[in-house]
Write a structure and sequence with these properties.
The complex is a heterodimer of chains A (281) and B (280). Chain A contains 12 helices and no strands. Helices cover 73% and strands 0% of the residues of chain A. Chain A is mainly α and 281 residues long. Chain B has 280 residues and is mainly alpha-helical. Chain B folds into 2 domains: 35 residues; 215 residues, MetI-like fold, CATH 1.10.3720.10. Chain B contains 12 helices and no strands. In chain B, helix 1 crosses helix 12, helix 3 crosses helix 9 and helix 9 runs antiparallel to helix 12. The radius of gyration of chain B is 24 Å and the shape is globular. Classes of the chains: A mainly alpha (281), B mainly alpha (280). At the A-B interface, helix 1, helix 3, helix 4, helix 5 and helix 6 of A face helix 1, helix 3, helix 4, helix 5 and helix 6 of B.
């Protein structure tokens, strides 16, 4: 059984490793001729579009992880408080958030397009008009569109952070809170001196996971904005896709996909650096 | 006295927060439902007509009788269920080995699995697309399923290891004493006891397969092979503002199966996830 298990492990690990290796080597291949050259790396990295792509990625990823982490933590704490104090609607709230999470990315993008749209069926703008306020160009204003994408992504992704934070908060020893109660700590002090420090490893692990997820998000953006208006929401995954499958620039796409991997890896290492020593293993 | 007032104030704040976040999470899908139930004229009334005056199911009927849609749904179901089965076949032995055998590099392998999780499907697809086209696997469901399986594997291994860990090792020893082979030990004792975890991994993989967009979008170009996620994207491209109600209905149809399965099995799925998350 052991050899079989290891062989199977290798059987599926191997293609993945091979793929990684290929994405390394492919970075210096051009088209079908496959000459080794650095010019594709240089071209891809000096492309005038790249800074804009990186900025869009930064807004999208940064905004999404900040929003998902904060909202996810707040939701988890409120749900736990609601369960303890038997508040009405706790389960409904938790379930609703989770339902948004199982919505396929493509569908999520389409749904939010219907909310943000400036056509009569756009929910938010038609509500604003009803209240005699000026409609907002959610998706057609290049300065606004990345933030709209962030909102849509927070909607879809927060439940994951909520589940992780919920589990981690439940794992904190209740005696800590009892002791704090005896010492007369206020709710805010309990949050600041017990909950947050105790949750720190879980928060960092969660940040790693959602950073990766957001970096890799592709379907929700393509159906929400398609990268537009102009190139305002062309995040790196969409850019890579366009390079490879629209411009047939396999080499350039390999470079940016490797860049993508590098960014994820660097961010993950940065987060791990923040972990308390005994949690690293 | 003041503590009591404090917690009542806290309750109010909690309720307020719950209300606002409920509105945030529920509105989009309710809006989708509202649009899907309208006829063409009421679409133009926006939020003023949140509950349509003349709710109609015509949009669903017209989407479902559209020749391509039943095929999209069937393809989506086929790809999701076959790939979830494939994930179990590939990941179970590995998870068993990770749970039961002690070898020195185990921690490293487990970490390696997690690292694979970091790699974007897009990064894999770039070289894989060439492989696939050379092997003639583009435009076949088999090729797409293989990629789905590979993508879901790392997470499945982690979660399955967690659930096999909960089966006490004493049972293994007792069964081995009675002359049980490794395979029948796994098949007859461990697997039945780990069923909740295995089932939830199956469901999670199925939901992931149902939502999978990138892989079929690249690998499947023929309409009669496309799964639902690609189907609605194509549909969105064809749609004009006069048929938003149809797009909403199509979107709702694609979302409902995943939501229904999730609601039915919520407890199972969450317990597997949190068990994995806390240990991981």
């Amino acid at each position: 059984m052991l050899p079989a298990a290891v062989a199977l492990g290798l059987f599926y690990l191997y293609p993945v490793i091979d793929v990684v290796r290929l994405s390394f080597t492919d970075a210096t291949l051009i088209g079908d001729h496959e000459n080794y050259t650095f010019s594709s790396v240089i071209n891809a990295l000096s492309s005038p579009r790249l800074p804009g792509v990186l900025l869009a990625t930064l807004i999208f990823v940064g905004g999404s992880i900040a929003g998902q982490q904060i909202l996810g933590l707040s939701l988890a704490l409120v749900v736990i408080r609601g369960e303890i104090r038997h508040l009405l609607g706790t389960t409904v709230l938790r379930t609703t958030a989770l339902v948004a999470w199982v919505v396929p990315g493509i569908a999520g993008g389409i749904v939010w397009q219907m909310l943000f749209s400036e056509a009569p069926f756009g929910a938010i703008n038609s509500l604003l008009r009803l209240l005699h306020m000026t409609p907002v160009a959610w998706l057609s204003n290049p300065a606004m569109a990345p933030w709209s994408a962030v909102i849509a992504n927070i909607w879809r992704g927060t439940a994951f952070s909520m589940v992780v934070m919920y589990a981690a908060r439940k794992a904190i020893d209740p005696e800590l809170y009892e002791a704090a109660e005896v010492d007369g700590a206020s709710a805010l002090q309990r949050l600041r001196y017990i909950t947050i420090p105790q949750l720190r490893p879980a928060i960092l692990v969660n940040m790693i996971l959602i950073t990766i997820q957001t970096m890799n998000t592709f379907d929700a953006i393509i159906s929400l904005t398609g990268g537009g208006p102009g190139l305002a929401t062309e995040v790196i995954s969409l850019y890579t896709f366009n390079l490879v499958f629209r411009n047939y620039d396999l080499a350039g796409g390999s470079v940016t996909s490797f860049l993508m991997l590098l960014i994820s890896l660097t961010l993950a290492l940065v987060y791990v650096g923040f972990l308390p020593r005994e949690e690293r293993s | 006295m003041s503590a009591r007032r404090g917690s009542r104030l806290g309750d109010c704040a909690s309720y307020l927060f719950m209300l606002v976040s409920f509105a945030f999470f529920a509105t989009p899908l309710l809006w989708l439902l509202s649009l899907a139930l309208r006829d063409r004229r009421e679409i133009y009334l926006g939020v003023a007509r949140f509950v349509p005056n003349h709710p109609t199911l015509d949009n669903f009927v017209s989407v479902l009788t559209n020749s391509a849609f039943p095929i999209y749904l069937w393809n989506g179901l086929k790809l999701a269920s076959l790939s979830a089965t494939g994930v179990l076949i590939v990941a179970l032995p590995a998870a068993y080995a990770f749970s039961r055998f002690d070898f020195r590099t185990k921690g490293l392998w487990m970490l390696a699995l997690l690292t694979f999780q970091m790699i974007s499907p897009l990064v894999i697809m770039v070289p894989l697309y060439r492989y696939m086209s050379r092997l003639g696997l583009v435009d076949t469901h088999f090729g797409a399923i293989m990629v789905y399986v590979a993508l879901s594997c790392p997470l499945a291994c982690w979660l399955l290891k967690g659930s096999i860990d909960t089966v006490p090792r004493a049972l293994d020893e007792a069964a081995m004493m009675d002359g049980c082979s490794r395979f029948s030990l796994f098949w007859r004792i461990i697997l039945p006891l780990a069923v909740p975890g295995v089932a939830s991994v199956f469901i999670i993989s199925m939901i992931a397969g149902w939502s999978q967009f990138l892989v079929p979008f690249l690998l499947l170009t023929k309409t009669d092979l496309m799964p639902i996620a690609v189907g609605i994207f194509t549909f969105q491209g064809l749609e004009s503002s006069t048929s938003t109600q149809l797009l909403a209905a199509a979107c709702l149809i694609s979302v409902m199966p995943a939501i229904a399965v999730f609601l039915l099995l919520q407890r199972l799925i969450l317990s597997a996830m949190t068990a994995g998350a806390v240990k991981g």
